[in-house]
Amino acid sequence: MTRGAANDDDTELGELRSDAASGVPDALFRYATALVARGRVEEAAHHYHLAGAAGHANAQVEYARMLLHGVGTDADPSMAVEWLLRAEGLGSPIAGYHLALIGLGNLQLPRDGRINERMLTAVQHDYPPALRAAAIHFGRKRNEEDQATCIRLLERGAGRGDPIAALLLAERLHRGEGCQAQHNAANELWLQLAKHGVPRLPEITAPLPPPSPPRASGEVPPGTLAFEEALQPAPWTMHSQQPRVMQVDHLLSADECRLMVATAMPYLRASRVVDPVTGRSDARQLRTSSDAPIDPVLEDLALRVVQLRIARAARSELAQAEHLIVLRYQPGQEYRPHRDYLPDRVVQADRPSAGNRKRTICVYLNAVAQGGETEFPVPGVRIAPAPGRAVVFDNYTPDGLPDPDSLHAGCPVQAGEKWLATLWLREHAYRSF
């Protein structure tokens, strides 16, 4: 930044500060937003609080989000819910969207029908993250009307500046998924995204998942938001009883796989591992992939629904899951034999009440040209990658002890690349919402 630009910036902030001194809620909100853009989050939280206390709904939402994630203030999810409820009471569909997101965890709010109601309201107000989540929801369904709804919602999201909705839409237009193929429209979307530094997704295709079992109230009519479908545990195939190793096919749709890759791509870095002796995280030849741990701040409702679906496939709760990690393995890269349970000192340093990593679930996100299998040497099990396929395994014995036989490896990718999403599931609740 040049000296002149810095002065301009200081002048702008000074003017906003002067306006905020009036105590007018909207001026306080604008000043807080400018502070966030400059990384001054503690001051921003204070001014969002002031504006929210004066009845500014958007400030209440932003202050709630800071409370939820401990940004600029101590984390307090229950207080965050209170502020969101205040904002929802003032008619904010964005507050309702975040309440729905929190409700998926079934901790701070019950996981009930209010999730669908709040999401419908947010969709009707064209809130982009809600449009994206609803589109992906309908995109899992085989009904032609639902597939068409998916396309319309992605178009609305892309039209409102959502790059991930635009990426998902381009892939569907290019392949004729849910619509007739429209190569020119897809190429135009990719061109516009490239101008903003958004790269194309890797090749990801997958068959539609099997239909969800009907609810007690009957079949879900087309066009119905019913996010509780993610709670239905997908059937698995048992490969080994000791150690327990299971496989779940067609768990995720192509849209859901693409969503996780699109979210992770900007944050990829060389993978690190926890040293079993020191407990420190470092980069070693044991694991030569790149990965992106998804910070909870980045989690939208669509990504939370996918994680809920993954956790339930492992017969666990979303609250037990550590934060999602997405990995990319390029030719020659691998994860040599290792175990997922953590050293005691690591457990004690990171939410000890959650216990250790009792179970792991990994989901392949794309087709690998050659190699990239997940191997369990002790039972002699090797599972090949397939888009949307999950591998579930226990890190503990039935007696509740770390299981050395859970040794496993990510075999080298010989051609193409492998994208993988992993949730490590603790013995008890790890997340706070």
From TrEMBL:
Names of the cofactor(s): L-ascorbate
Entry keywords, A to Z: Dioxygenase, Endoplasmic reticulum, Glycoprotein, Iron, Metal-binding, Oxidoreductase, Vitamin C
Domain of life: Bacteria
Alphabetical list of SUPFAM superfamilies matching this protein: HCP-like
Domain named Fe2OG dioxygenase: residues: 320-427
Protein name stated in the entry: 2OG-Fe(II) oxygenase
